[in-house]
């Protein structure tokens, strides 16, 4: 496998840090964390003028505007939850960390949308394969295994 082995997402034996979606403390911590990366332009561009009296110039302070943007971003944030998956003895490495999108709450305001996979990456792993044509021949073959790498709030 050479350079294809990624110890962050692959393991030969079950890792001790196998906490996954079932660990409520980890999940709570994940959902409380501030979203990372650049704030989506849809949120960054919001001025929060809707609902104010027409004709009057209402201007929110930069601080209040930023707090509202951060709150909205945290409500619509779609984290990727990782857990170790046992692929069985026909695969090497046997354990792969797979991603899933947290969808137990709505990620939109107003509610209705949920987090869904938006991007994935592929890991190269080996699968044991036997063919019976002309005698049995067995060999390891490389396969591409998809891993969810990003989730997005959508319908």
TrEMBL record:
<dbReference type="GO" id="GO:0009953">
    <property type="term" value="P:dorsal/ventral pattern formation"/>
</dbReference>
<keyword id="KW-0964">Secreted</keyword>
<dbReference type="Pfam" id="PF05806">
    <property type="entry name" value="Noggin"/>
</dbReference>
<keyword id="KW-1015">Disulfide bond</keyword>
<comment type="similarity">
    <text>Belongs to the noggin family.</text>
</comment>
<dbReference type="GO" id="GO:0045596">
    <property type="term" value="P:negative regulation of cell differentiation"/>
</dbReference>
<keyword id="KW-0732">Signal</keyword>
<dbReference type="InterPro" id="IPR008717">
    <property type="entry name" value="Noggin"/>
</dbReference>
<dbReference type="GO" id="GO:0030514">
    <property type="term" value="P:negative regulation of BMP signaling pathway"/>
</dbReference>
<keyword id="KW-0221">Differentiation</keyword>
<dbReference type="InterPro" id="IPR029034">
    <property type="entry name" value="Cystine-knot_cytokine"/>
</dbReference>
<dbReference type="GO" id="GO:0005615">
    <property type="term" value="C:extracellular space"/>
</dbReference>
<dbReference type="GO" id="GO:0051216">
    <property type="term" value="P:cartilage development"/>
</dbReference>
<keyword id="KW-0217">Developmental protein</keyword>
<keyword id="KW-0891">Chondrogenesis</keyword>
<dbReference type="GO" id="GO:0001649">
    <property type="term" value="P:osteoblast differentiation"/>
</dbReference>
<keyword id="KW-0325">Glycoprotein</keyword>
<protein>
    <submittedName>
        <fullName>NOGG protein</fullName>
    </submittedName>
</protein>
């Amino acid at each position: 496998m050479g350079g294809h082995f990624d110890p962050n997402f692959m393991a030969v034996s079950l890792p001790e840090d196998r906490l996954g979606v079932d660990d409520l403390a980890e999940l709570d911590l994940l959902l409380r964390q501030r979203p990372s990366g650049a704030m989506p332009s849809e949120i960054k561009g919001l001025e929060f003028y809707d609902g104010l009296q027409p004709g009057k110039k209402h201007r929110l302070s930069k601080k209040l505007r930023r707090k509202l943007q951060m709150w909205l971003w945290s409500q619509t944030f779609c984290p990727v939850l990782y857990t170790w998956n046992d692929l069985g003895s026909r695969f090497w490495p046997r354990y792969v960390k797979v991603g899933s999108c947290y969808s137990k709450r709505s990620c939109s305001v107003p509610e209705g949308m949920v987090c869904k996979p938006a991007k994935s990456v592929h890991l190269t792993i080996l699968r044991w394969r036997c063919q019976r044509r002309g005698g049995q021949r067995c060999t390891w073959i490389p396969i591409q295994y998809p891993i969810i790498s990003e989730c997005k709030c959508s319908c």
